[in-house]
Design brief:
The complex is a heterodimer. Chain A is an all-alpha fold. Chain A has 8 helices and no strands. Chain B contains 8 helices and no strands. In chain B, helix 6 crosses helix 8 (155-176) and helix 7 packs across helix 8 (155-176). Chain B is globular and about 55 Å long. The chains are: A mainly alpha, B mainly alpha.
């Protein structure tokens, strides 16, 4: 068995007479003494001589036009496809976009409303038990309250008023702020309204 | 090579004459390769057009690391593989079923025709990479370096595929027919 891979690799080009004279002589010399390489050369020749029919000049002459037309068609289809793809992307999500818009509006509304609620609720939750209870039962008539409840209201209002009086005194004493109402800026509308009602209640009850 | 690059640049720029020049330059070589792979004009013609269309559609993406011809060969081989695979599945004839008539009156050309038939079937029986490599080396006279580029493998792998392929062909042909010694 011949293991001369160099010669074997040169055989296909030997068929084409593509080697220089020295290589040709070397291969010829090897073939003269190597049955296996001669057989291999015959096999390669058989393959190389495998005929490829010529489709004719008309076929070759028409090919550039055929390819050109096909390329143009493909590029047009591609453009159409790209446009269709874009339109699809634009058309498909219309209802999705509507839903998304509603969702976004809801989220933004929630973000806007939630902090406001928190601002109005925080003082109530921070207040004493009476404040929470008062919010929960604001519609209850004062006439329905018993003596203990009225006493609680009285003491709460007294402490609130005392606190405000202290703040007012401080403001007046320091003379930094001529407008006392600015000292009440920390109170929200609900607190002021409640204080006002408490004062009215106390005034009515003498 | 430089001529190809010039034609490519002009084709990309929209020059129809350059486009035609590239098609005319390579259509016969690619057709020959494809015909040897698929063995009929209709498929070879169809694949030739597809190869050229794919090449020209993607010409702007041709990276020019290999030659334009090598790139065309790569595209053609990749397109032909599927046809060849389907064909070899559908038409596979076990090599043992091929009977070489040994009528003493048989003419030499008949022997050669039968040898060719046997050779085609033997080629079909080779693993794909070995078959492609042998075809490119023997029938298309491509150098191993080019084959390595076309098949996207190392030079050593290309040579190994060639040696193994030819060895298998010799074994099959040696058993089944007298290929002759010259």
């Amino acid at each position: 068995m011949c293991n001369d891979k160099t010669i074997k690799e040169l055989l296909p080009a030997y068929l084409d007479q593509a080697h220089d004279q020295a290589e040709n002589l070397m291969i010829k010399s090897h073939l003269a003494s190597c049955d296996e390489c001669r057989t291999e050369l015959s096999l390669l020749r058989l393959m190389a001589e495998e005929p490829v029919p010529d489709p004719g000049e008309a076929f070759w002459a028409a090919m550039p036009d055929r390819v050109y037309q096909a390329v143009q068609k493909r590029q047009t289809n591609k453009k159409t496809f790209d446009l269709a793809w874009f339109l699809d992307r634009m058309a498909l999500p219309r209802w999705i976009w509507a839903a998304s818009t509603v969702g976004i509006v809801l989220i933004v509304s929630w973000l806007i409303v939630t902090p406001l609620q928190k601002r109005t609720e925080m003082p109530q939750s921070q207040g004493n038990e009476f404040a929470d209870e008062a919010v929960a039962t604001w519609s209850v008539s004062v006439a329905d309250l018993d003596h203990d409840e009225l006493s609680t209201i009285d003491s709460w209002a007294g402490s609130e008023l005392a606190s405000m009086a202290q703040e007012a005194e401080l403001v007046l004493a320091n003379g930094r702020d001529a407008d006392i109402y600015e000292a009440f800026e920390d109170l929200n509308a609900g607190e002021i309204e409640r204080i006002s009602k408490m004062l009215e209640q106390i005034r009515r009850e003498g | 090579m430089d001529e190809d690059l010039d034609l490519i640049n002009r084709t990309i720029a929209g020059e129809r004459e350059a486009f035609n020049g590239l098609v005319i330059k390579y259509q016969k070589q690619i057709y020959s390769l494809l015909y040897r792979m698929v063995s009929n004009h209709e498929d070879a013609s169809d694949l030739l057009q597809k190869t050229l269309v794919r090449a020209f559609t993607g010409l702007a993406t041709f990276e020019r690391r290999s030659s334009f011809k090598t790139w065309l060969y790569q595209i053609a081989i990749n397109l032909a593989k599927n046809v060849y695979r389907d064909r070899s599945k559908a038409e596979h004839v076990p090599i043992d079923d091929v009977v070489i008539r040994r009528d003493p009156r048989t003419l030499d050309d008949l022997i050669r025709k039968e040898s060719r038939l046997l050779l085609r079937q033997a080629l079909t029986g080779l693993p794909e990479k070995q078959r492609m490599t042998v075809m490119l080396r023997v029938q298309e006279s491509r150098k191993f370096e080019e084959i390595a580029e076309i098949m996207q493998c190392s030079l050593g792998t290309a040579k190994a595929n060639y040696h193994h392929g030819v060895q298998k062909l010799k074994t099959i042909m040696g058993k089944k027919s007298d290929v002759g010694t010259g």
